[in-house]
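Subgroup meeting minutes
Present: P.N., E.W., G.H.
Scribe: E.W.

1. P.N. recapped why we're keeping a running log of single-chain structure predictions: easier to compare across weeks, and new members can see raw inputs and outputs side by side.
2. G.H. added today's entry (205 aa).
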Amino acid sequence: MVDTAPSPAPCLIVGLGNPGDKYAGTRHNIGFEVVDRLAKLWAISLKQERRFQAEYGVGFGPCREKVYLLKPLTYMNRSGQSIRAAIDWLKLSPAQVLVVYDDMDLPMGRLRLRLLGSAGGHNGMKSAIAHLGTQDFPRLRIGIGASDRAGDGAVVSHVLGNFSKAERATMDAVVDTTLRALEKALTDGVEKSMSLYNSVDLSGS
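Output recorded in log:
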């Protein structure tokens, strides 16, 4: 008999980014921004937690279920260390983690929720997959668009750069939609949220 038990609902939401004022508001820190907005929405206090090398908070989500929020302070390339420490302490499985991060391969104005997948070249996700020992965990990618110039230096400048005024307006709408997508994932499952939000296009094009 085939086991068709549903995957456990995610309860640890991780936003990827880099710590410090230097990186605040940059494209690469959109994961941090989403977690900050969730903390405000759900009235969860984020505080520095040394054992996780992160900002961390615990509270209740849209259905009063317990949720955990995490912003690794390890810098992007070592995000997995923080996530691993958190799931070990909280005794969670990788499937209960949902990671939110920026994606250059996705146009601005789009988001993409998935149950599993590769890192797609994102160093924070490479670290997460390495430390969790699997790529079978949910993730929500937020499109930041590709750099209009070639070369590694241009890519770094792009992801660590700030949004233009027009881009910021688009991203505000995307973050609002991301919050709804995450709440739907917690209340009705990741697959249901995927069916509703993966086709949304807020680019205005």
